[in-house]
């Protein structure tokens, strides 16, 4: 069989993250990244050049992405001691000016207190008007129970936000009656509601229902569980890493998470059964109810962000370019032995601009425009005939990776 092919091959640049390596310096019980020399790719097999990765070890959920004082921030679940998921998970922290080239900072949150001594699990960042960002995160406490905690920057004038202070009154939320201690995690970005109160949802599972438990607060410090979940269903498993945000019905622009008007619909996303599912619907703040246009069915008809390796995703509103950006964890399919041999496992997806399609039925995604920075020299081949099982050498470029 012969194939008539048209090749467009682009030489892509590698990430310019100033060549970071991990060094074992102790700080609050964690190893931290320290600037060092260029990391040679051959030191760690099969590392990517375009997707976000830490210098080494295990990575999973993206946490608390945001823009603050000219800098993009990405926190993420990380095991500082190995290439596998561990019993001592932390919030690692990296910053960027363009979402392409990243600077790896010292870790933001490490297990140090009774309320998070067995790991700092996933959560979100909310920027409070006039007060700056606040992190809400799940701690695994001394009894291995999942509780919700808060942390604030030590120095708001530091655009890198390199130091974080845990709230003295943590935990601020504990599993409510009827919810088991291992089914209460992953607080979302909070939003300011119609009555001036803050709202946040926590992923859970109770009475054979996956759900978004709703909490409300007047001051962001003292939280009260609302009488009913914002949404629940019997057609899913445990809800992990829920996300709840508005999308414009008339524009591809993103909107702030606290926007509530007739010009938006709301997306409810939950991670379960190894995939990320979402619904488009209407949020009724006066009733604190979410009414989906189409409920989860537990079938292949449910809407998904991605049909590949993509999980525990998180969006944020980029106020600089008026867009909502989606991050997702891309898990590895390698064996445990291979991951340990490589010295790393997991990466983040290419960040995606996300918006509502014209029909209002589903979301549209596209790689952020900054990805074009990775495109370099282009080599084209027109009407080139390639025989089956033959080898064709692309000349004129030198690169470990190309786009085709």
UniProtKB/TrEMBL annotation:
Per its UniProt record, what InterPro entries does this chain match? Answer: Fructan_Metab_Enzymes, Glyco_hydro_32, Glyco_hydro_32_AS, Glyco_hydro_32_N, Glyco_hydro_beta-prop_sf
The record places domain Glycosyl hydrolase family 32 N-terminal at: 51-367
Could you tell me which PROSITE patterns the record lists for this protein?
A: GLYCOSYL_HYDROL_F32 (PS00609)
Q: By its UniProt entry, which CDD domains does this protein fall under?
A: GH32_Fruct1-like
Query: Which GO terms of the molecular function aspect are on file?
Result: beta-fructofuranosidase activity
Please give the catalytic activity noted in the UniProt record: Hydrolysis of terminal non-reducing beta-D-fructofuranoside residues in beta-D-fructofuranosides
The lineage's top-level taxon is Eukaryota
Signal peptide (from-to): 1-19
Please report which protein family the annotation says this sequence is part of: Belongs to the glycosyl hydrolase 32 family.
Q: What is this protein called?
A: Glycosyl hydrolase family 32 N-terminal domain-containing protein
Q: What's the source species for this entry?
A: Populus deltoides (Eastern poplar)
The root-end lineage is: Eukaryota, Viridiplantae, Streptophyta, Embryophyta, Tracheophyta
